[in-house]
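Record 1 of the preview.
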Amino acid sequence: MALTSESPRPATALRRFDTLFIGGEWVAPRSGRRIRSIDPATEEVWAEVAEADAADVDDAVAAARAALHGPWSRLTPSQRGELMLRLAALMRRDAAALAEIESRDNGKPLRDTKSEIARAADWITFFAGAADKINGAQIPFRPDALAYTRREPVGVVAAILPWNSPISLCSWKLGPALAAGNTLVLKPAEQTPASLLALAALVAEAGFPAGVVNVVPGFGEIAGAALVAHKGVAKVSFTGDHRTAQKIMQAGAATLKRCTFECGGKSPYIVFADADIEKALTVALHSAFRSTGQSCSAGSRIFVERPLARAFAERMAERAQRIRTGDPLDPKTHIGPQTSAEQLAKTERYIALGREAGGHVLSGGRRPPHQPRGYFIEPTVFVDVENTSRLAQEEVFGPVAAVMPFDDEDHAVALANDTDYGLVGGLWTSDVSRAHRVAHRIEAGLVSVNTFRPVHWMLPYGGYKMSGIGRENGLEVLHEYTQTKTVVVELATGAPADPFAD
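->
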């Protein structure tokens, strides 16, 4: 039985975030509607947040365009970087308050949200340093002309964010977009609408010109659709389900919008018999169950060389039972609830599908007995699962892992690549040659050896196949937020040859 952290939660007043952040001002939504944010640990409304509609989106895009061609464009790159450093400092100052909002909004434990806010500030800091290092190039294509390139901002960026790590993943988009001189309209997920408005207050305090950053919480089919179709938006950066990304591409086709997508995964985690099994087991638990499995890069397909597979699964199941589920605001909690009733129902459905397909649950698979309310589910370890099953092929986005055997290196690679996704992959081995061979063969944007998912602001991150388009992070991402202009200046002083003279 999974351990449960229990601490009395004091009653708190309903929080109200009554305004949108548009053009540097706090403005009431045109419709007057509110989004009710549910605390997933209690199933109670903890906050009401202003809901944007298409008219509010129009206002936000207009404000972003005015800033793009106004005061923001007149700042030097170093000045942009200085404003970003101020924002990062304010995020560190208010990390505890921001973390509590996120934990109330999405159910992630404070121990995780505090760490994520700190790292989000580090992301902004890194890209602040990159702002004055975005260079073009001189091209010597002939001696009597000067040719050079400029890397200019793409324009207004619509950043559409997921509910699992709102501020953290916002920083992945906000940092490079601002460094490159773009302006933004941010739309948080309707399940977690509050924390980006708290971040907007820090943007204002940092002194960014009005309209550089705008925040419009709202529903995807209303505010999100308006953003994606808006002719004033040049680029959409989206993190979420691939089916939504497909709709964004279709809606943005009319104006040929640039798009970058990170669309989840079904990440393989390969353990060879010569690996350090204790380390591999510890990291497997974290990779599968961190954030209650609500991670695009969760290592949920665990392939173990056949002689060790059953023992590995049994030990993983035993250790999974020690994970403490409970109140996200309790510092002893390891993992909290799923973010929504809808997500919990989805996870329970996949557990049922796994059983129906012949899989067996070694641990978990039910609501923790000591959590009568909240969207909780125990960390779940499956065996006897076929890689072709829906449980193994489709993204659950819950704390569910399947341990499956493989016979040799070719078999492991074939199983790992037999999926529509390709975001992250990992392998454990003490054979250096094998490490490189297998890493080169895995179809994923990030492959790690003897670790898993080392996400960092310096490392490009993105997917193959249905896991997305484009890259986030690293200096490489700056190409996603700039467009290249070629300038040619004629240096010759003589009269040009007249091609029509004869």
